[in-house]
Amino acid sequence: MKSLLLPGLAAALLAGCVHAPGPPLTAADYVADMPAQGVVDLLAIADRAARDGARDAPRLAAALVALDSYGARPAETAGDPVPAWRASLPASAVPPMRGRVLGPAYRKGVLEPGATVRLDQLFDGGRQARVAVATPDEGELGIAVLDGSGKPICPSHLGQRGQCKWVPPYSGRHQIVLSNPGSARSTYYLAID
After folding, report:
1. Mean pLDDT of 116-139
2. Is 97 helix (H, G, I), strand (E, B) or coil?
3. How far apart are alpha carbons 167 and 9 in whole angstroms?
4. How far apart are CA 34 and CA 5, in angstroms?
5. Coil, strand or helix: which one is 85?
6. H or E element, residue 118
7. Entry pTM
8. Sign of CA dihedral 25, 27, 32, 37
9. Structure confidence at residue 63 as a pLDDT band (50, 70, 90)
10. What is the arithmetic mean of pLDDT over 64-89?
């Protein structure tokens, strides 16, 4: 039942909320092919709902339920906004915490105008690797992934959301490069799966 519920829920939350070039994405894309991108998109949606002065509790609650179904967990508990979002919801709207034991790890960050951040990450050889970023703000972010020798795995992509997926031939360190080419400070959500 969860596999049928999640696509509809993810589609309802993601429809019209994310601007991305290319063909329209289906709910199945988020569930089967893009868990990292789905996680950061849901985090951006929840962030916007939580920041809304009128507090969009149903939308925030739905985003948290969908996030739980991915099994997403914070890469670092310090600064994780999800517990505060849960606490801000009325008791009747608080979604249960359940999901897979393992899932995409996510983190929240902020990039000042013109800033770049480089994050080192180990990926297992022979296993699908995914890195995704999304921002709840209006600006665009750049994302690129480099292998241990500095060779681009995914060349720089600019947008409000972006994803890189590949299968590393060998286990090793990679570098995730995020940049803010805009003139305003930008919040971002990064997921690694």
Report:
1. 87
2. coil
3. 29
4. 17
5. helix
6. strand 116-123
7. 0.56
8. positive
9. confident
10. 83
What local confidence, expressed as pLDDT, does residue 58 receive?
81
* pLDDT tops 80 at residue 190: yes
Residue 48 half-sphere exposure toward CB, CA atoms < 13 A: 17
Cα–Cα distance, 83 to 183 (Å, whole number): 30
Domains of the chain: 2-93 (no CATH), 105-192 (2.60.120.510)
**What is the number of other CB atoms lying within 10 angstroms of the CB of residue 119?**
16
Give me the mean pLDDT over the 29-50 stretch. 76
Distance CA 54, CA 50 (A): 9
Tokens 């209006």 appear where? 138
- C-alpha 118/C-alpha 37 separation (Å) is 19
In angstroms, rounded to a whole number, what is the distance separating the alpha carbons of residues 134 and 54?
Answer: 23
Q: What angle do CA 116, 121, 122 make, to 5 degrees?
A: 160
Distances (CA, A) of 160 to 30, 46, 96, 133, 150: 16, 15, 29, 8, 24
Of 35, 65, 63, nearest in space to 136 by CA = 63
Q: What is the pLDDT of residue 62?
A: 82
Residue with tokens 């681009």: 152
User: CA torsion, points 13, 18, 20, 25, in degrees to nearest 10?
Assistant: 0
Give the model's pLDDT for residue 180: 94
